[in-house]
Pyrimidine-nucleoside phosphorylase (Salinibacillus xinjiangensis), 433 residues
Amino acid sequence: MRMYDVISKKRDQVELTKEEIDFFIEGYTKGDIPDYQASAFCMAVFLRDMSEEERAHLTMAMVNSGDTIDLSSIDGVKVDKHSTGGVGDTTTLILAPLVASLDVPVAKMSGRGLGHTGGTIDKLESIPGFSVEMEKEDFIKLVNQNKVAVIGQTGNLTPADKKLYALRDVTATVNSIPLIASSIMSKKIAAGADGIVLDVKTGAGAFMKSEEESRKLAEAMVSIGNRVGRKTMAVISEMSQPLGKAIGNALEVKEAMDTLKGKGPEDLTELCLTLGSQMVVLANKASSLEEAREKLRANMENGKALEKFKTFIKSQGGDERVVDDPSLLPRASYQIDLPASESGYVKEMVADEIGKAAMLLGAGRATKESEIDLAVGLVLNKKVGDQVQKGESLLTLHANHEDVEEIKNRLYENITITENHVDSPTLIHGVIK
Ligand code: URA
Ligand code: CA
């Protein structure tokens, strides 16, 4: 087989076979196929698309390019949740203990954040002592014991995806549905989940800005998952403004604890109940979404969800006293309000730009090497649709330096207030099975 022929076939819109896709991924991972041919291949896929069968083959070829995690020694159906990235997305911190409180095993491998998107590990590490470094055996033992554990990236998972993603980044081929869908799904499948609940974001803060594109991506991932034998479904959710109120690591831990008590922001709570119900049903711990939702709601109110969070923190070396005393979390030196410059209704809070402002305060990494400040970030006091009086605080900056004028200006540029009534945006745009 020659790579030249595989590229020309894709260029001429002929469907590729499993053998041809395997040949490309194996050869590229080993270094036998050079970057220039892989670039041409990605561009051909970008322009010509892939059939559902080709996408499934590409995904499995990437899964097989490296290690996979075997979770079979964990009892029960292992359901993983994946979000396509957003601003202030605190859902994993809430969902992990919440669904575990219904005995759904959560064996989560997580990453650090990059750019304006926060990472679950960074957030958890703002709890003093908390560690995600452990042996795989201990990880599995913890999940069997407590139903929940989070581990950092281990092993050499999907090396083909790592190499291809970096190549796509410099060849204008990131934004291709078959390439994004296979990239994300290969990582979830290699991480060992039996079932996958996807939270596909739509709007300014999302990878996919339009609802139509988000839906296509969701359908592509659901099709791949189900074709390769993993129960997969997707929720399409709003990401035009940040999710919940807190953006920033320790601030989001506090927000997660409030939500686990049933006292969280409305949108964040609703998204967690929607995704959580799907996870509980996939794991066969409820027979309907309604029943699952009631059980989740009950555990927020009777304290079991929060108790599970405590157990989870303690089991990974963290100071579980933060649950009863959030002042033990890192706290920024300055709390600075951003007053509304006019009265009216909040029309827009551009999610990615607000995420970038939080990053500039130090909450996120501009590059992989940057150090982050776990204490800093933003807390929204108003959200889209809320009425506001001139001078009232739109949000509070939590900063470790006083010199925040530029960041404040940036925030003003990305928050629009209008005279007329504004509806709050629809949160859930659809469910794809
Ligand atoms: N996230 C991924 O993991 N892969 C992509 O291709 C795009 C976003
Ligand atoms: Ca949040």
